[in-house]
Write a structure and sequence with these properties.
The structure holds two protein chains of two kinds. By secondary structure, chain A is mainly beta. Chain A is built from no helices and ten strands. The mean pLDDT of chain B is 92.
Amino acid sequence: GAGVSQSPSNKVTEKGKDVELRCDPISGHTALYWYRQSLGQGLEFLIYFQGNSAPDKSGLPSDRFSAERTGGSVSTLTIQRTQQEDSAVYLCASSLAEGFTDTQYFGPGTRLTVL
Amino acid sequence: QKEVEQNSGPLSVPEGAIASLNCTYSDRGSQSFFWYRQYSGKSPELIMFIYSNGDKEDGRFTAQLNKASQYVSLLIRDSQPSDSATYLCAALYSSASKIIFGSGTRLSIRP
């Protein structure tokens, strides 16, 4: 079956522009996670959607970041007024069950470069 | 102080030997801990998670947790060149709504 897909795979934008990153989780997976990874760094957790519950947004690095998940499936991470420090690989993952202890399957990531 | 700390390495281990990867965490309320493997240019993949004190074994991998010392480790027996990767340790925050990753340890298995 299809894995987690993300689009675009690469995004180059100018400082100050808004960007939208999309994640299609594995069909039937109830939980969806967003992370980012800067060059040579570990993963930074951003946000987690579980079922229809409202997500805990405290992991988002600033109020320029927002995320939504429509119909319990596709998710969009939006970054407004991008800054150079937003440059990173943004990874999405999904898991069958809610809670971090279920195996998360990662997508290939979106590499964001802010000039 | 970082919430999850790992030695960045690189850790070089001869093929066939035991590789030992270590991680400490600061949130005493953390309950679950994870080890991910990440090959260069690829997405992470979960190797194991552990939430009880002691050892948990899965094939060549053994995770060890010591909550009193706030210490998690991953042992890889009979190391293979294909084990060469960056290993990320992570702790599930006590609120269970956030996971914190270390910066990873780069492991190199030399033939």
